[in-house]
């Protein structure tokens, strides 16, 4: 047989062997066991999660990580839950939040210690979660995002409530302040108005009283002056009348009109008057 033929046969055989080996390696797919009910003292799968929750890494388990090696460590430390992520083992007391449960096919990374077993995934920090069997009743961790959201919602609600109350107070406060200010102004303006009105009335009355008193004083003084003038005139008239003879101008005549004017003005000392004579008229006598 020629050397070329032998070389060709050897190459074909090597190619088939390498291809078969490569095909064998690619057919190994890690399996993520579905979540099952926990069993006491047994390791049971709890599914695939996209977060670790509050699980902490077990630094003592680094090489040939698998569910078996991680279980021995976490159970020995009395942890209720364990998790596998790539080449690391995690332990804890509660499951990750239920909202972080993801499809089992996302846990597709082969464990270094056992390639047919899934150790979560390198993508987005996906974890394979297990129950160690110490306690079959394990709580789920409260969702961090939900708690945060709830806290934010509560905070926002509180802020909104506070803002609403503040707005209501700010809207209502000026009205109350205005009302109180109005009442205060009314109370203040009431007494001031009354005082002003009273002062005005008192001022007017005082002015009228002053005017009345002035008029009364002027009239009284005028009357006094008139009376004084009358008294002076009377005194002067009396003096003048007393110095003139009876019957003169300015004197009061007491002569009877029936009497003879000549006889009336005669002096009483001229002679006696006969009682049986009528001297009121002249008697015509014949004279020789």
TrEMBL record:
Start and end residues of each WSC domain: 42-133
Family annotation (PROSITE patterns): WSC (PS51212)
Disordered: annotated span: 146-192
Biased composition (Low complexity): 146-181
Cellular component, GO annotation: cell periphery; membrane
Database matches in Pfam families: WSC
Domain of life: Eukaryota
Localization of this protein: Membrane
Membrane topology per record: Single-pass membrane protein
Transmembrane portions of the chain: 194-218
Keywords of the record: Membrane, Signal, Transmembrane, Transmembrane helix
Secretion signal span: 1-22
Entry protein name: WSC domain-containing protein
Origin organism lineage: Eukaryota, Fungi, Dikarya, Ascomycota, Pezizomycotina
């Amino acid at each position: 047989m020629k050397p070329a033929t032998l070389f060709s046969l050897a190459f074909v055989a090597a190619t088939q062997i390498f291809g078969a080996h490569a095909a064998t390696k690619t057919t190994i797919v890690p399996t993520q066991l579905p979540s099952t009910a926990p069993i006491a003292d047994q390791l049971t799968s709890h599914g695939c999660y996209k977060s670790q929750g509050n699980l902490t890494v077990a630094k003592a388990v680094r090489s040939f990580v698998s569910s078996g090696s991680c279980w021995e460590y976490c159970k020995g430390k009395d942890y209720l839950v364990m998790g596998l992520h790539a080449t690391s083992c995690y332990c804890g007391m509660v499951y990750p939040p239920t909202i972080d449960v993801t499809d089992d096919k996302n846990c597709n990374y082969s464990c270094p210690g056992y390639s047919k077993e899934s150790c979560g995934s390198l993508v987005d920090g996906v974890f394979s979660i297990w129950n160690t069997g110490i306690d079959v009743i394990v709580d789920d961790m409260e969702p961090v995002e939900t708690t945060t959201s709830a806290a934010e919602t509560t905070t926002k609600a509180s802020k909104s409530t506070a803002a609403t109350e503040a707005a209501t107070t700010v809207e209502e406060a000026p009205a109350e302040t205005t009302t109180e200010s109005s009442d205060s102004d009314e109370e203040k303006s009431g007494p001031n108005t009354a005082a002003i009105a009273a002062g005005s009335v008192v001022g007017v009355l005082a002015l009228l009283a002053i005017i009345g008193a002035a008029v009364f004083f002027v009239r009284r003084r005028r009357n006094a002056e008139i009376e004084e003038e009358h008294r002076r005139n009377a005194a002067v008239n009396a003096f003048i009348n007393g110095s003139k003879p009876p019957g003169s101008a300015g004197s009061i005549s007491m002569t009877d009109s029936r009497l003879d004017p000549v006889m009336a003005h005669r002096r009483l000392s001229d002679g006696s008057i006969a009682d049986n004579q009528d001297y009121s008229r002249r008697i015509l006598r014949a004279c020789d």
